[in-house]
Amino acid sequence: MSSLRLSRGRIGGYVNTEFTPEVAAEFGAVLGTFLGERSIVVTARDYYPPSRMIKRAFTAGLMSTGVTVIDFHATTTPELVYAIKRFGAKAGVQFSVSNVEENYINLKIFDFHGIEYSADRLDNMREKVRQGKIIRTRPERIGWVTYAEYIHDIYIASLINYIDADPILDSFIRVIADLNYGPTNMVLPELLSQLGVDLISLNAHKPPVFKGVYNLPKIDSIKNLSAAVRAMGIDLGVTFSADASSIFVVDDEGVPLEPDELFALLIKYYATGSIVTTTSSSQIIEYAAEQSGLKVYRVEYMPDSVPRTIRRRRASMGGTDCGEYIFTGFSPSPDGLLTLLRILELIAKTEKPLSELRKELKKPKKYSVPIELEANKARDAVFELARNREIDDIIVTPLGAKIKVANKWFTVKMLDENRLAVESEKIRSKKKLTEIGEQVKLLLFERSYVS
User: Fold this and answer.
1) Beta-ladder partners of 11
2) How many distinct structural domains can be found in the chain?
3) 412 and 370 in contact (C-beta within 8 Å)?
């Protein structure tokens, strides 16, 4: 089990070297031992073939401890979380490819509330495997596997019932969506069809063979969406993470919204009482909250930190700069599909395009300096920062990355094919920003990205 990594709050490893079927089965048995015989666990995966292999081995480990498994095959993470309470499960487990590393599988484990296990809890489970603390059941009590393909229909019906669907039905909105080779294709077409929304789908098939596959969409996806929206006069462009926990948006003018910007917009129209976000999020969150008289709680980003703080503070919404948004009335965890419906509802009710709505937001001033790179290296360089395991504090989206230097957060984003920019809302000194830029260059130097 020492071969599996605990990195940035999640368990994972490279397939067939670190994360082997044998390791997966052991970890499944540890979870089953922890939950107890006759417990129910729901499981799901993305379309990446290694995720399927690892999930089956993990399921065998669960069964060996007497746990019953409800398997949803290829299913989005929001559906899995929804199913935990629906089926009275003690846990939910999702297997998905890494945000930025090829052939690396992450394991997301959710508790009975639908909130991811903390890093401490996952580390404790790794230690129990190392110590061999697994309790197998008697052969006649080995758990069952039940398949429940109908989860998509239940989830779609629940989403539509949760929002105000009538304005969307009357609005004739057109959407272009990049599904990023994920099981979102099992949900989104039917969902938008029932709402009368015209949909153009991109990458709505399984992952291409022998090509790099990631949970996060690449920046090329955003660029293609922007071009398509402008060329066809589409109302909205969206792309999802492969497991649909995150969403990234392009407005009707083909301009991408920063995740913080989208969250500020959602806060303005949907939040009540208080909201939760991360310490790395933009000051635009405070501006939006102040206008609505809301209290803002900020926490250091970990997969479980925002959901747990929402539950403790009884907040109405949560969001991160990873494109994750939580509407607590429906789910305790991020849901990219529900977020899309909220955006559609917002456009329909205000009768304003997204480009006009975003202009109404109060935005903080930003200061930046460029970083010169080798030709055509900018896109790869941002992902390379995310792969650098010497950087503990990093937030990644298709539009760029945020890193913490000297206890302050800085944004690293792509200016063009050959240049990045280091950006800050608080540091006005060009000299200081240039120094940060030099540190980023050092981080990229080993990969020869710097010119």
Assistant:
1) 6, 107
2) 3
3) no
Say what the pTM is: 0.94
Q: Match 């995966």 to its residue by tokens.
A: 45
Cβ distance 226 to 178 under 8 Å?
A: no
Q: Are residues 210 and 340 in the same domain?
A: yes
- Look at residues 149, 181, 208 and tell me which one is the last residue of a structural domain: 149
Whether residue 1 contacts residue 19, with contact meaning beta carbons closer than 8 Å, is answered with: no
**Domain shared by 213 and 244, yes or no:** yes
Q: In what order do the strands lie in the sheet with 40-45?
A: 5-7, 10-14, 104-110, 91-97, 40-45, 68-74, 145-147
Domain final position from 124, 149, 174: 149
Range of the domain at 98: 5-149
Pick from 6, 87, 5: which is nearest to 44 by CA?
87
In tens, the pLDDT along 231-289 reads 999 999 999 999 999 999 999 999 999 999 999 999 999 999 999 999 999 999 999 99
Q: How confident is the model at residue 445 (pLDDT cuts 50, 70, 90)?
A: low
Q: Are residues 295 and 379 in the same domain?
A: no
> In angstroms, rounded to a whole number, what is the distance separating the alpha carbons of residues 267 and 327?
10
